[in-house]
From TrEMBL:
Lineage: Eukaryota, Sar, Alveolata, Ciliophora, Postciliodesmatophora
Annotated ranges, domain Peptidase C1A papain C-terminal: 136-349
Organism of origin: Blepharisma stoltei
Keyword tags: Disulfide bond, Membrane, Transmembrane, Transmembrane helix, Zymogen
The protein's name: Papain family cysteine protease
Pfam families, per database record: Inhibitor_I29 (PF08246), Peptidase_C1 (PF00112)
Length: 354
């Protein structure tokens, strides 16, 4: 009986009004659900981005043989994502250079600085040479003359001063003696502390030359690079395969002086590499975005004076997968130059003494 009474309520106007309210709530609910579904479409795309960045991270791990503990994995992935975002923004600015993921993509700027760079200290140097006004060739590339050895990777050892100077002596030895021989950076790292160098904790190109003037330098084969500090192997020091009797510091900021020297032989130089542009450099010509607080050493192996902008061809020691097969091109601008590359450049002289 009660049931029947209730059903008769359907005819009741109050009940109809309640029904209308319920229906309205239902419609609002549907609209809400629709809106929610619409908005939730955003999360699958965030998820896609996460997944594609994670697969890029996996490729990176494989390519550079990275090994992480599970906790470190999360931290490194986060840094990698931040760096990836930075690289994308920089590349969207369409400049003369491009950045890309490389061995350093899981490091913060602080870590990069700590592992790879060290501020330069130059004490007294020999007299500066004044640039002679020779007729310079419009382009030079010592790689084409077979005067440059393979690109090596210094690893987490701040010893670029050893790579830049052995590179300069390798070039000079080839040009003035006729044979290309890979020389030992490790000998300089282990044995030149008395000349002011600090092994894998930094040093200077001048001190490395002073060591080689005194002791000559043995080969990479006899005294291979270990990417860490070691005790000086005294017995190998006497087995030098290349010797120099002097070196020249080019007058600071003398662009023509550096060009004149590079026309003669590969030249060691110092730069400020404490810059994202160095950390992620992938290719092109660097024209700006770096300072002149020298903290890294490199080898200038050529230049191009017909291109726009003109540029130095520079060999680095961060492995062949960095930059342009291990090289970087830096615009030639008067004065200290881009990244200070013309501030403290030097080359070995009086080479053929053996
Ligand atoms: C070394 O070279 C400089 C020029 O750079 C020269 O002034 C100096 O006399 C040379 N030293 C020796 C011992 O030849
Ligand atoms: C120098 O640059 C010009 C213009 O970009 C290029 O055509 C030429 O091949 C370059 N020369 C060398 C030796 O790389
Ligand atoms: C070379 O340039 C640097 C940076 O601008 C400057 O500090 C230094 O005084 C210059 N040196 C010479 C000798 O002009
Ligand atoms: C042409 C020349 O001087 N060659 C010399 C190069 O250096 C080696 C030693 O490493 C000498 O034996 C060569 O005579």
């Amino acid at each position: 009986m009660e049931g029947f009474l209730s059903s008769s309520k359907r005819e009741n106007p109050t009940f109809k009004r309640n029904l209308a309210i319920i229906a309205a709530i239902g419609v609002i609910g549907l609209i809400g659900t629709f809106a929610y579904l619409q908005s939730s479409r955003a999360s699958p795309s965030l998820l896609d981005q996460y997944q594609s960045e994670e697969s890029e991270f996996q490729e990176f791990i494989q390519k550079y043989n990275k090994e992480y503990t599970p906790e470190e994995y999360e931290i490194r992935f986060q840094i990698f994502q931040d760096n990836l975002a930075f690289i994308r923004v920089q590349n969207s600015l369409n400049r003369d250079w491009v950045l890309g993921v490389n061995e350093f993509a899981d490091l913060t700027m602080e870590e990069f600085r700590k592992y790879y760079l060290s501020p330069m200290q130059f004490s007294d140097h020999p007299e500066y040479s004044n640039s002679e006004s020779l007729k310079l060739p419009s382009s030079v590339d010592w790689r084409q003359s077979g005067a440059v050895t393979v690109v090596q990777n210094q690893g987490r050892c701040s010893c670029a001063y050893a790579f830049a100077t052995t590179g300069a002596v390798e070039g000079a030895w080839k040009i003035f003696n006729g044979t290309l021989v890979q020389l030992s950076e490790q000998e300089i790292i282990d044995c030149s502390r008395n000349f002011g160098n600090r092994g894998c904790e930094g040093g200077s190109t001048d001190s490395a030359y002073k060591y080689m003037i005194k002791n000559g330098i043995t080969s990479e084969t006899k005294y291979p690079f270990m990417a860490q500090n070691g005790l000086c192997k005294i017995s190998l020091v006497s087995e030098s395969v290349a010797e120099i009797s002097n070196f020249t510091d080019i007058y600071p900021n003398d662009t023509v002086g550096v060009e004149t020297a590079v026309a003669q032989q590969p030249v060691s130089a110092n730069v400020q590499a404490d810059e994202a542009i160095w950390k992620y450099y992938k290719g092109g010509v660097i024209t700006s975005n770096c300072g002149t607080n020298l903290d890294h050493s490199v080898l200038i192996v050529g230049y191009n004076l017909t291109s726009s902008p003109n540029y130095w061809i520079v060999k680095n020691s961060w492995g062949p997968s960095w930059g342009e097969q291990g090289y970087i091109r830096i615009a030639i601008k008067a004065g200290p130059g881009v990244c200070g590359i013309q501030m403290h450049a030097s080359y070995p002289t009086a080479v053929n003494r053996l």
